[in-house]
UniProtKB/TrEMBL annotation:
Chain sites annotated for binding substrate: 56-58, 75-76
Listed name of the protein: NADPH-dependent 7-cyano-7-deazaguanine reductase
Compartments, as annotated in UniProt: Cytoplasm
GO molecular function: preQ1 synthase activity
Residues forming the catalytic site: 34 (thioimide intermediate), 41 (proton donor)
Keywords on record: Cytoplasm, NADP, Oxidoreductase, Queuosine biosynthesis
The organism of origin for this protein: Candidatus Tenderia electrophaga
InterPro entries listed in its UniProt record: GTP-CH-I_C/QueF, NADPH_dep_7-cyano-7-deazaG_red, QueF, QueF_type1
GO biological process entries: tRNA queuosine(34) biosynthetic process
Reaction(s) catalysed by this chain's protein: 7-aminomethyl-7-carbaguanine + 2 NADP(+) = 7-cyano-7-carbaguanine + 2 NADPH + 3 H(+)
SUPFAM superfamilies per UniProt: Tetrahydrobiopterin biosynthesis enzymes-like
Principal localisation: cytoplasm
EC numbers for this chain: 1.7.1.13
Function noted in UniProt: Catalyzes the NADPH-dependent reduction of 7-cyano-7-deazaguanine (preQ0) to 7-aminomethyl-7-deazaguanine (preQ1).
């Protein structure tokens, strides 16, 4: 596998497709460029998903996230693009992407985008006394 940025998202077979379980991934070093000023934007991305048949491979995810470094992108667009690309690669039961962008001009931005497979119903949460 290359160590250069790439839009290719490698996957592997879900080892427990019969079970709903959640995978949480934090990407604390995301960067892209402001499309208006060309200045760098920094963010932490939080990815949560319930896999179906495929899981995203982490090194491929790192190189994918790196591919935005020199691209101009509004926070709302980049968050939704990442969700769309991950959903296309993994076809999860559920996925939530949260982009927590660092302060810019005194304003913090957090963008949350979700996907839910049409045939999936989340399990009822267990409540322990």
């Amino acid at each position: 596998m290359s160590t250069q940025p790439t839009k290719e998202l490698e996957t592997f077979a879900n080892p427990m497709p019969q079970r709903d379980y959640t995978i949480r991934i934090d990407v604390p070093e995301f960067t892209c460029l402001c499309p208006k000023t060309g200045q760098p934007d920094f963010a932490t991305f939080k990815i949560e998903y319930v896999p179906e048949q495929k899981c995203v491979e982490l090194k491929a995810l790192k190189l994918y996230m790196w591919s935005f470094r020199d691209a101009g992108a509004f926070h709302e667009k980049v968050t939704n693009d990442i969700l769309a690309d991950l959903v296309a690669a993994t076809a999860p039961r559920f996925m939530r992407i949260t982009g927590v962008f660092n302060v810019r001009g005194g304003i913090y931005t957090t963008v949350i985008a979700e996907h839910r497979a049409p045939n999936w119903t989340p399990p009822t949460p267990v409540s322990l006394p």
